[in-house]
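Materials and Methods. Structural model of GNAT family N-acetyltransferase. The 276-residue sequence of GNAT family N-acetyltransferase from Vagococcus allomyrinae was retrieved and submitted for structure prediction as follows.
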Amino acid sequence: MRKIEKLTALNDEQRKKIYALAKQFAKKEHIYFKLDANILEDEQNKLVSHFLLMKNDRLQSYMLASSYSGNELEITLLGGTESNISDFFQLAISEARERSLNKVMFITDSNDTLTVTNFKNNLLEYDFSEYRLVLNPEKKPSVISSSVTLRQANITDEKQINALDFDGFGEVTQIREIDLQNILLAEVNGEIVGKIWLGESADSLGLFGFVVSAAERGKGYGRNMLAQIINDKLATGLKNIYLEVALINPSALKLYEECGFEKEATFDYYKLNVEQ
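The predicted structure was written out as tokens:
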């Protein structure tokens, strides 16, 4: 029997099925998906909904819907087919309306021709693209002695975190108190100069929301932040470290490549305005 379940949290078995399906596409078709392990393993995140298409207890497709910033809903569809993409498409629109959001942003690997064609047929407008980069441990950056220190964020840092996000991305990301344990702040002489969000699971680490304040760029602070984090994590035995960077940000791409990251996939973003 075929059915689509909507969940606010996943159990271990469901997560295993999602990871296995993603690995299957990566291995057989070289198609990758924007799946943050930190989100998949969070059991109390009201900003996220999970949609699982099951048939006889087997996961056929999965859709992740999240809304962390602005007025948009981000959608990642894993395992879409000609027969079910339209179903997920309508579910995404309904989810946006339920949350009173007026824009849906659909994310897909540029190699996923079936999904890209479907988006275009539904008159979705292409918005931008980003590279998914993975670390080559053999090219890890050297830790350069500097005055940059890293510490975990706390509730008193929220205003400065918001300022950094707006400075770097032009928008503010919703932050729950529980999220602060995953955010590292960089300080120089006691002043916050940058931040980064760590999305860590048992076997991978995603680096998100990385920004150095405009007034402090060009001083090597960002490079030192990345070097410290990468070397600390590699020392624990973790080897799968990844991040995403917009194609229109060549300076950031250059920094990441100099720190040992290599291109794995290109994610395209298509947007749809939703009437409430």
